Amino acid sequence: MIKWFKNLSIRKKLLYYMLVFTVIPIALVTAIALTVNYNKARDQLIYYHRMSSGWLQDRLNVEMQDTFKQIYSFETDKNVREKLINWCVTDKELNYDDRWVLITALNSIISIDSSINSIELYNYKQGEVLIAERSGATMEKTGGRLDFWKDHDDNLQKNLVFYRTEKEILEVHQIYRFEDNSPIGLMVAHLRPYALQKLLDEIKSVPEESIMILNDMGNIIEADYGEEYELSESTVAHVRKMLSESEQKETLYNERFWFYRPIGRGKLQLLVAVPEKTISETLLPTLMMGIFIACATAFIGIVCSVGYSALISKPITKLSKEMQNLKLDNYNSRQSSQRTDEIGVLQESFDLMIARNKELIEKEYQSKIAKRSAQLRALQAQINPHFMYNTLQVIGGMALGHDAPEIYRITLALCDIMRYSLSFSKEMVKLSEEAEYLKSYIMIQNERFGGRIRMELDFQEETLDLLVPKLILQPLAENSFEYGFSDKTGDCVIRFVSRINEDGNLKIEVIDNGVGFTPKRLEEVNKALKSDADNSMQLNSHIGLRNVHSRLRLHGDSDKYGLSVKSDQYRETVVTILTKAIKEQGEQNVQSSDNR
Description:
19% strand; five-stranded antiparallel sheet; 18 strands; 17 helices; elongated; Beta-Lactamase; single chain
């Protein structure tokens, strides 16, 4: 595939490149936009139904609290309680006065709540029921009215239970005797479901959404099912049980988002199901529009790519054929190009290049032969250093083979030093490269000093990529070893610090704890270093210092750049380098960290 592409003409390559850089971004942007829109729609759907479910939960909790107040206000009324106990506990018949008190209390509840059709009071002991309706009140035998209550699970609460009949919602409350907490009767309110249906309609946002209110046994009290999305009883029961028994009240199950909310400590349970498909259906117009725009843009990009590639590549192809058939001995320069754009410049430059090449071939033939000879001599001069480098590698291998890892480690470090110093491809290198070379040099010197040398590097992060003259730190380290550590006993510490100073220049300090300079010698060194580059070469010793100082002065083209030395005899010596802060892209000052 790669070989096939390389063999294509520049016109086809340009065309393919333009097609790739036109179509792929459009496809990526379209895919990303649809993904983002889908995630936003999904999050918005979840957030909306979380809020609406919470709102309905709060609303039903308030209404349930009102129901509790009505029930307990009825049951705790002393007069009503007395009549109720006389009727349900003793064998006395309910006389007119007691009956009137109970009916009045029940009618007051019915008159407050318009959703109540009737309220029934059941006497377990006598098998009677007092029925209070808006049109009047009657006393009847219980008969089979309480068959539904016999099937109620005794492990579930009976304080407030909801049932659903064909047309009504039953709100059941069991009445207990305070003394021994034994059940004596039952209060059943028959409610119209229209108020609950109205609430469900208010929070329903999409036709596909299903909202169910269940009792504590999992039976549905009221529901508003979504269009075209059937829910099986087993699925509803499974999700209700799963969410009611876990801390998580929302889940994605069976391609639907489910929201569960308990009401009145589980006496009622709210379950909302929203098909995940509704998001895709909502995004379908956006998807189709995005695909249409993407296809239209891709088509326009293809047409423009074909035309533009032909416009650009045609003169280049023509010029390429001329270059392929070129013969210097019979080449005739064309008339001046009529084009003034880059293609015309290229054609004129080609003609000029051919003319100059012919002239150079004629006039500098002998010069090139001489240059070739000089290059051969230069290659021969490099044989000895490279031979030494290869020999060191052989010695290292032999040392490792004879179980002498120390010799191998030193030989390997010396190889790294020679490789770095023999590379003349770059005059300027990164400070990080200079530091790596320095580590190998210090390691060899440490062996010479019996492991007493400790090197510390404190380079500011932003200085590591700055360019410095190659082999600028090693002479300073060598100066410390030769004059600072040679007569010192005990541990020897050499520290390298780099910073960007206030003027945006690179400042490097080499600090050692050697014997230092005498005050007289320190004065002589600094005096010589402060003079120009030629005078600094007159120092009789400290060749490394004067070499580095000269290079810095010549490279920096300013008197402020170079070396300075401070020394506290027998304690420490500090050699400071000040040079331009140059990035690899070109020479430009880098702001100091203090000014940022």
